[in-house]
Design the sequence.
């Protein structure tokens, strides 16, 4: 096994892992605000890719198509919260989670009816000429993926720790009753969290679409892997989710390269199961320190 | 300043508060006392908008707030320190306090919010020492101070205090009650105080109401209530028969 191939696996892994990380981040944002695990998160990623393709095919220039896709998915996030979650807001978390699974099936079905079952590709953002170094090749698109992921991560980090809105969203998850007494509109925050998650997920979907192609059903697997990423990083920890995604992507890529690509998807779920048995708080999760 | 007219509250079929009427004048500390389950907390959460009354009217500064959302009531200047403190445990002391200013926070008010933050730290030096510590790691008394400080950050005209002495050591309870007196004297803050510790509450209050199974059964100046034989028997633990 030469250095070039190892480096190649690493690059592929980190690129794909960044998307898992963004999906995981989406889970984290909604979970942190509402306590719901949104299993339609993968569909937001799919929507990003599919809507980007659709807009581009309709003649919209690529950069605008990307932005349009993210904006439309954000709207879909708001719509989902309003129509599926808000009316049953008093239901238990388990019921709400099942509702999100229903919503994911619905979104997938609608997209299939409109766009069909074909696989689509989005053009690369800045050419397909690979950058070669040390015997490995890296697509310029990989740089886009990594750069945008990093940017989103830093943006969210400062949003939650520095802005009043971000703090307010976190407060809703820790204690919704007290948050309401602070003057925070808790249900509006829930909708905002769905919108931000949808935007982050769709951004992940649309930047990855040129590399991995997209179809109406890519959300299932991406959603599950994003979920695995955020369990790996410790549920509720945004940076953990992003790191978890990258770790998963790299392990997958090495597994596929060194063992067999047939096991690629299995690797994630074996790790997920092992983790749930051995360390359910995740790699970066810690027991909360509080006095009773 | 605050006026309740014939307020009824139902939880499903349970009639938790029955035709309660009370008023609090500006600058007054009014104690609402009563046993466990009398409806004291229900009445406070109704005032702050977390619970909707099934009948009656709530007026704050002569404006009806009976069915207003909690965020509108905070903006109007009525801040509620909930029972059990409800601080945001994983967040830092400073973030907790800043969230208290959520209802009035904007680019323009930012410098004033910073001043208020320092004010709260001056009022509770221990919170200043622990400003970056997670709120959940504070002691019970410190969490109570944080909850009060957080409520003050919205610059309220009136404070609703629910069981501030609950679960605290006697010395800490004395400190908290002294603070209420101080807030009234120095800032002219109006306070509606709910307490099971009836003696301590009536000692610092101007007037009091006694709530029993959802009804207000007695009201009057605090010192008269302290002397009242029924109040003494029921809430101050005095055995009058033995003394006679």
Sequence:
């Amino acid at each position: 096994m030469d250095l070039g191939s190892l480096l190649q696996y690493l690059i592929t892994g980190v690129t794909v892992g960044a998307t898992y990380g963004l999906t995981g981040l989406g889970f984290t944002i909604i979970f942190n605000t509402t306590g719901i695990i949104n299993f339609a998160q993968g569909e937001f990623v799919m929507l990003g890719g599919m809507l980007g393709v659709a807009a581009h095919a309709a003649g919209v220039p690529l950069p605008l198509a990307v932005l349009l896709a993210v904006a439309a998915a954000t709207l879909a996030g708001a719509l989902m919260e309003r129509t599926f979650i808000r009316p049953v807001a008093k239901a238990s978390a388990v019921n709400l989670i099942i509702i999100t699974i229903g919503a994911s099936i619905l979104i997938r079905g609608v997209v299939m009816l409109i766009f069909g079952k074909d696989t689509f590709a989005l053009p690369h953002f800045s050419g397909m000429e690979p950058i070669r170094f040390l015997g490995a090749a890296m697509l310029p698109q990989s740089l886009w993926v990594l750069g945008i992921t990093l940017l989103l991560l830093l943006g969210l980090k400062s949003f939650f720790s520095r802005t009043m809105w971000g703090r307010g969203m976190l407060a809703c998850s820790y204690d919704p009753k007290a948050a309401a007494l602070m003057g925070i509109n808790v249900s509006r925050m829930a909708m905002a969290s769905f919108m931000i998650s949808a935007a982050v997920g769709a951004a992940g979907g649309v930047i990855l679409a040129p590399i991995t192609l997209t179809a109406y059903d890519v959300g299932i697997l991406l959603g599950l892997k994003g979920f695995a990423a955020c369990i790996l990083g410790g549920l509720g920890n945004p940076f953990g989710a992003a790191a978890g995604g990258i770790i998963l992507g790299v392990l997958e890529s090495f597994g596929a390269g060194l063992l067999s690509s047939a096991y690629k998807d299995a690797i994630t779920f074996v790790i997920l199961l092992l983790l749930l048995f051995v360390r359910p708080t995740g790699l970066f999760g810690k027991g909360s320190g509080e006095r009773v | 300043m605050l006026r309740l007219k014939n307020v009824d509250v139902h939880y499903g079929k349970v009639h938790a508060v029955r035709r309660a009427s009370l008023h609090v004048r500006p600058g007054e500390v009014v104690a609402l006392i009563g046993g466990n389950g009398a409806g004291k907390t229900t009445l406070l959460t109704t005032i702050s908008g977390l619970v909707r009354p099934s009948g009656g009217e709530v007026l704050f500064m002569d404006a009806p707030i009976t069915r207003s959302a909690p965020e509108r009531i905070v903006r109007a200047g009525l801040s509620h320190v909930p029972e059990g403190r409800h601080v945001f445990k994983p967040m830092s002391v400073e973030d907790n306090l800043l969230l208290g200013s959520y209802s009035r926070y904007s680019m323009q008010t930012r410098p004033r919010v910073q001043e208020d933050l320092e004010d709260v730290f001056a009022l509770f030096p221990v919170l200043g020492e622990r400003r970056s510590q997670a709120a959940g790691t504070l002691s019970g008394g410190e969490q109570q101070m944080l909850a009060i400080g957080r409520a003050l950050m919205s610059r309220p005209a009136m404070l609703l205090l629910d069981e501030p002495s609950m679960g605290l050591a006697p010395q800490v309870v004395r400190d908290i009650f002294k603070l209420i007196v101080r807030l009234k004297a120095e800032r002219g803050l109006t306070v509606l105080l709910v307490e099971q510790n009836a003696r301590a509450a009536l000692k610092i209050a101007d007037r009091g109401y006694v709530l029993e199974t959802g009804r207000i059964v007695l009201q009057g100046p605090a010192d008269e209530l302290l002397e009242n034989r029924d109040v003494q028997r029921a809430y101050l633990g005095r055995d009058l028969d033995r003394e006679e």
About this structure: Chain B has one domain: 2-243. The radius of gyration of chain B is 18 Å.
